[in-house]
Amino acid sequence: MKIKTMRERLLASSMICGVAVLGLSATQAAAQEGEVSEIVVTGTRIPSPNLESVSPVTAIGAAEIKAQGITRVEDMVNSLPQAFAAQGAALSNGSTGTATVDLRGLGATRTMVLIDGRRLMPGTPNTSGGALAADLNFIPAALIERVDILTGGASAVYGADAVAGVVNFIMQRNFEGVRLDAQYGIYQHKNDNDYVQGIVRDAAAGSATPEGYALPDENVWDGESSEITLTVGVNAPDGRGNVTAYAGYRHVEPILQGNRDYSSCSLFSGATFDEFGCGGSGTAYPARVGSFVVDVTNPAGNTFRPLAGSGTVYNYGPSNYYQRPDDRYVLGAFANYEIADWAEAYMDVMYMDDVSTYQIAPGGIFAGNFNINCANPLLSDQQRALLTATAATGGGTCASNPAGTFRGVVARRNIEGGGRQGRTEHQQYRYVLGMRGDISDSWSYDAYLQYGRVSFNQVQTGFFRTTAINSALNVVTDPTTGQPVCASVLDGTDTACVPYNIFRLGGVTQEALDYLETPSYSTGNTYERIANITVGGLLGDYGVKSPWAEDGVGVSFGAEYRREQLDSAADFVSSAGLLNGSGGASPPVNGSYDVYELFGEARIPLIQDMPFARSLTLETAYRFSDYSESGTTHTYKLAGDWEPVEDLRVRASYQRAVRAPHVIELFSPQNVVLDGSQDPCAGLSAGDELVARCAQAFGLTTAQVLAIEENPANQYNGLNGGNPNLEPETSDTYSLGAVYQPSFMPGLNLSVDWFDIKVEDYISGIGADLIINRCLESLDPFFCGLVNRDDSGSLYLSPQGYIVNTSLNTGSLRTKGVDFNVGYRTDLDTFGMENMGGISFSFVGTWLDTLETQPLPGDPAYDCVGLYGTICGIPNPEWRHKARLTWNTPFAYGDWINTLGLSVQWRHFNKVTLDAFDADPALANPGIAYESDRVLAARDYFDLTATWTMRDSVNFRLGVNNVFDKSPPLTGSSNCPTGPCNGNTWPQVYDAFGRYVFVGLTADF
Q: Dihedral through CA 919, CA 923, CA 926, CA 931, nearest 10?
């Protein structure tokens, strides 16, 4: 066959090289030339006559994805050692309703996600997440042909955000026929943690509300997930084009924390977990008023007893979602048609509608300072005698001064109303329309327009409106009826008000809940518009080549325009911060920016077919970017590939990358929200040496320090927000590696790649916990000046208490390590085991050498390798790996079993240690260095999968992940930051739900 066009030349040679890696001969490959389709090489846009990337790339094929039994793409990506936990289905409090990927632990915004080499738009305008990153829910798992994970900066090739690396989803195209893919999975767990169960029973025995400490059934099956995808493909009658269309639906059932014994209560940190037992929130049931709580032991039900020793802490864990419920619809099509020899039109149309609901503990009146009028008829005489009127209203007790007003901490959990929920819907659209082709035998082009939009709608329920609380507590006697009535009804300021009787057990009415509970609504959109043109050429056809090389220079150059836009708004009650217990106000965000870019690449073969230089190639790239908000940036790459002998390749690269600040970082208004997880000055006793230090740091008296209340839930306020003066981040990536494919052992390939990524001027807040600890360590007025205490000295009882933690160009991030990849495939005949089929083995491991953060320029950096906690965040094990061994058996049974494969996978996480125990002064924190949290032990998970084919057209799969039902390591509340730590563990890192059983099929018609 005579190959005429440049594309055919490249694709044919690419296939020959690609299949040679699998042990096929070049002759066999050439025989398949007629089946060649478009090849995507991650890491470069240069038309290249081989698939071997200079940059380290880990690839996951469709078979591996199906063997894992996943219905969520995030589960597959997060199983890789290069990926760190980010947004996902196992987050509830702090969830954005999306699933993101965080390569190398540098943050999801520093990882670029591509579909067939083209950018995937940001996944949500939900500003509660504080970051804009692509949503993996948009990717239809059944259509994935393979996933490429590229290490390190790739901004010169793909543009901003590719700082930590690139995840490129290669989709199945040019499909012909009808395919049905279905998957069902369910979690099973045996609740047999006697240690935690004992703690829960003890908590129930000592609680004022023992019903809040129920244990789950011993054997539970829950968290069902199902997915079905239909793919239809048809070729054009003239064979010049194809349309591949798909439609899919996914359903996921929720898992409650109360369904697992190890998350059925929120564990307090201590010497052991049973030292202090179950923790919880000070916003509890029954109600707290000042230093008293309603006495549940008094049959009258309307008396107070002292708060101290009352056991009044609310177990907020059981009603939280461990796994969020989800319903997702996807619909799309990929089309291409060759209009002429030089012009192939193509189009992508992709759509998703995803609805996910978070649920956290019931709302109510969250601990804060409120007024109660002394003449409130809902108070009993005993209660009036204990409450003190403010000096401004005459002092004395409410009994002696009925015209006075009590002001103090009031808290009460809305146990009658159920959990707070947020129904979050994302509708995502992505359109690509382009033209590509060969200008000549030496030159090709690719030009496309791309449009992406995400529409976001959220409805939150179960929250009280703060203004309504104030009205419902200000109750008087109606002079006409003699019944309790809100004062606002009589004066006409709020005629809908209904008294909220928190002073009597059973006193809350449905009418009061209907008045207090206020739904809130928020909406938003993100828009991404891209215009791109790329021209690629083989300059060797013009004699531009090294005198020592056979192949000539390959080049690619082009231009791109991109516009990013975001708008987000909430209704009045949310934007004004009127929802009690919502974590803060949700102010509107509206902003956009444009970027114009020029880019180019060159691949230069320097030496070929010489002694100790079978191949020596240089690769370069450069990109100029002009941002409307951030100015100009320059990114570049210099890489080399040396093949001294046929079996060995050595590769090295240096890449400069950038990340421009996104719309939320630039334009988000400053706002007080839940942020930090500690206040070292709260809850101190008189003999504590920190008392004097806190008084000195914040200008308080000893009495004022001793009066600062600790938040049992370890949630404190921070002032967060954007900064229009932010500069782009810059990063430098160095990599050095080797690929070994020994000719004496066909089918074996090994690669080792060292990486070193450093991000300068990274965009972040300094960190609320770091700020307050640095203040107390150094008494530095810069850090202490960022801590703003309210009138009671608190950082959580009112929005006036917070730590300033707005976005800045701060210090630096750095990570170093080594990736190991091993692949092997062979027939067992090789080992003298005739007619026993074949085996394949894959191994991916990462040794993490450095994961440093320098909070501010000039500061020493702290290293989080092997650590976790309030500063280091999610567990960062020094070593992670996954390995799979598959036996493709020779067994068959007529048309019913044509092929049968069995595989086992081993996933390993090294142990991690609490950062508070580290010797580094930036991490050491004796105040929260509890033995119960010191070490999260190593975890090993084993997965089994069986696949078989029936009648050559139906492929079944059956599997069990976490075969031995291994429970996750547990963390106490002092070192379990809200969001990534959920249910006493880190469910986006560890298998938190138990054994996962799945079954699936793929049927072709």
A: -80
pLDDT in tens, 987-999: 999 999 999 999 9
Token pair for residue 35? 């089946």
What size, in residues, is the chain? 1005
Please say if the pLDDT value at position 670 is more than 70.
yes
> How far apart are the C-alpha atoms of 292 and 296, rounded to whole Å?
12
- % of residues, the chain, pLDDT over 90: 77
pLDDT band at 687 (very low <50, low <70, confident <90, very high): confident
Do 621 and 162 meet the contact criterion of CB atoms below 8 Å apart?
no
pLDDT value at 433 more than 80: yes
Give the integer Cα–Cα distance in Å for 418 and 426. Answer: 25
In whole angstroms, how far apart are CA 443 and each of 242, 447, 539, 621? 24, 14, 9, 18
Residue type, 81: P
At 971 the pLDDT is 96
What CA–CA distance (Å, rounded) separates 1001 from 715? 46
How are strands ordered across the β-sheet holding 57-61? 57-61, 144-151, 165-171, 111-115, 118-119
pLDDT given at position 45: 65
The whole-angstrom separation of Cα 376 and Cα 735 is: 71
Taking alpha carbons only, the member of 244, 220, 241 closest to residue 230 is 244
Beta-bridge mates of residue 978: 981
How high is the pLDDT of residue 31?
32
What is the per-residue pLDDT for 156? 85
What is the pLDDT confidence band of residue 680, given thresholds at 50, 70 and 90? very high
Q: Summarize pLDDT for 921-950 with one digit per residue, the tens.
A: 989 999 899 999 999 999 999 999 999 999
Q: Which backbone phi and psi does 453 adopt, to 5 degrees?
A: -140, 140
pLDDT at 13 over 80: no
* CA 729 – CA 943 distance, rounded (Å): 40
pLDDT for 5: 45
Q: What's the CA gap between 793 and 920, in Å, rounded?
A: 29
Contacts of 920 (CB under 8 A, 6+ apart): 862, 863
3-state helix, strand, coil in the chain (%, to 5): 15, 45, 40
Question: CB of 793 within 8 A of CB of 767?
Answer: no
Query: In terms of C-beta density within 10 A (0-12 exposed, 13-18 middle, 19 or more buried), how is residue 646 classed?
Result: exposed
User: What is the DSSP code (8-state) at residue 161?
Assistant: T
Q: Where are the beta strands (DSSP E) in 236-325?
A: 241-252, 255-256, 288-289, 292-294, 304-306, 321-323
Q: How far apart are CA 197 and CA 191, in angstroms?
A: 9
Q: Which two tokens stand for residue 799?
A: 């929005």
Q: What angle do CA 628, 633, 638 make, to 5 degrees?
A: 150
Interval 158-187: pLDDT, tens = 888 899 999 999 999 999 999 999 999 999
Which residue from 850, 639, 766 is spatially nearest to 154, judged by alpha carbons?
639
Cite the DSSP H helix spans in 361-408: 381-386
Global confidence as pTM: 0.89
Dig out the tokens for 845 from the structure.
């491991």
Is residue 540 pLDDT above 80, yes or no?
Answer: yes
CB neighbour list of residue 455: distance below 8 Å, 6 or more residues apart: 426, 427, 428, 523, 524, 525
pLDDT at residue 239 tops 60? yes
- C-beta separation of 252 from 285 below 8 A: no
Q: Could you tell me if 36 and 595 are in contact, meaning their C-beta atoms sit under 8 angstroms apart?
A: no
Amino acid at 496: A
- Which contacts of 977-980 are long-range, i.e. CB under 8 A and separated by 24 or more positions? 977/677, 977/714, 977/870, 977/873, 978/93, 978/94, 978/674, 978/677, 978/713, 978/714, 978/715, 979/91, 979/93, 979/94, 979/95, 980/85, 980/91, 980/94, 980/873, 980/874
Is residue 925 within 8 A of residue 777, CB to CB? The reply is: no
| pLDDT reported for residue 979 | 86
